[in-house]
Design goal:
Glutaredoxin, 9 helices
Length: about 210
Amino acid sequence: MAGAEEIRFYYDFKSPFSYLALAPVCALERTHRVRLSFTPRDFEPRAAYGGELEERGQRDWDKVRYLYVDARRFANERGLIIRGPRKLFDSRLALMSGLYAERGGRFREYAPMVFERFFKRELEIEEPAALAGVLREAGLDADDFARYAAFDGRDDLARAYEQAERDGVFGVPTLIVAGERFWGNDRIEWAIKKLDAMGLRRDCAGAAR
């Protein structure tokens, strides 16, 4: 997309708020002259919410439960289902699959399926075979992904984390628009105001102003 402003969208497949942000963020390419870069970043629930599940104190549990109440409030407005995971998942393999899907030009098809099934408790994002099935549904080569995950994927994921550090990303979802951070699915409207101020909104026919 020539002349488009690149904006980075940091996400984690185990983050309910990343799920909530995905569709509105993807819509920005239709409403504004932008190019999205989907960048994985582990949101580290152990550090954020008091360690392993059995180590959490009451205050940490109260915070987690409240955040899921909020997530469901947003989800209910859009007819989405968000169920809290029964354990702390390691999402690194899934995040590598997101990188692979973007390399193959199929992230927009792949990611919604991963998010939806994970938060319905229908997808084990740590299981290679489970992810392989979704990759095939999205039109991607699952065998090639297995090779990618074993070699280049690890380096690509490390580079994504390094980019997140440079961008000052401390949580997901985060949008980076012209160097400015917007953290949270409910901050997308602010990002839109910035894009509008930059003169990037398309007219009703889909052409850039």
